[in-house]
Specification:
Layout (H helix, E strand, L loop, with lengths): L2 H27 L6 E4 L4 E6 L4 E5 L4 E3 L8 E4 L5 E4 L9 H15 L5 H38 L6 E3 L1 H46 L5
Antiparallel strand pairs: 1-2, 1-7, 2-3, 3-4, 5-6
Helix pairs in contact: 1-2, 1-4, 2-3, 3-4
Length: 214
């Protein structure tokens, strides 16, 4: 693959991998990288949803996170004792994020190769990772919409916003799409250069044959 395309492709894939890795391990380890949060101005100030748990910031400033586990559920209550429940079916889909992260890492490793066949595989794996990132982002949108609707029942709908993890997933999807096209363009340019190099000697030979004696 041409060096002019190789370096940008590696950069795109590396950046996408890092972003997806951050989103995958976020809560409870990186509490600022949540998908959705709500400001309640009550007993709980901020609630964040992410891969393995949810966290909240109490009025004393301490951040408290639930026990880690895939497919968690949570319930919230306002001062009027109204309660909403978000079941595990809404958080199970978050597992697609680490899968997209793993596939993007495989694409990153393949992008270092200069072999024409491997670059083709790298391009396909990049598009596969982009598809998984798209699915992850769709899951994030669904979770945020449902979370916001549930918070609206408690009177906090206007205070529910997307977290940084939401936009990191979107950015990684764009980077993976760019990486797939970059690797593909690099492979095509490499093939054209190889074809030109391979055909040049024969053309030169045919030209000089005209001046040979019979």
């Amino acid at each position: 693959m041409s060096r002019a395309f190789c370096i940008p492709a590696i950069f795109f894939l590396f950046a996408a991998f890092v972003l997806l890795f951050i989103v995958s391990i976020s809560l409870p380890y990186l509490t600022a990288m949540d998908i959705a949060r709500v400001h309640t101005n009550g007993t709980v100030e901020v609630t964040g949803d992410q891969q393995l748990s949810y966290c909240y910031t109490a009025l004393n400033g301490n951040v408290v996170c639930s026990e880690t586990g895939h497919g968690y559920s949570l319930s919230l209550q306002n001062s009027a004792n109204n309660t909403v429940y978000i079941g595990s079916s809404w958080t199970l889909g978050l597992a697609v994020h680490p899968v997209a992260c793993g596939v993007s890492f495989i694409a990153l490793l393949l992008s270092f190769s200069q072999h024409i066949t491997v670059t083709l595989v790298a391009s396909l794996v990049s598009f596969l990772a982009a598809t998984l990132a798209l699915i992850s982002f769709a899951i994030d949108i669904a979770l945020y919409a449902y979370f916001k609707n549930q918070m609206g029942d408690l009177g906090f709908g206007g205070n529910t916003v997307t977290g940084p993890g939401f936009w990191l997933t979107f950015t990684s999807m764009i980077l993976l799409i760019l990486a797939g096209f970059t690797v593909c363009c690099g492979r095509r340019r490499h093939r054209m250069a190889s074809a030109t190099t391979g055909s040049a000697p024969s053309a030169k030979t045919n030209f000089w044959r005209r001046f040979r004696r019979n």
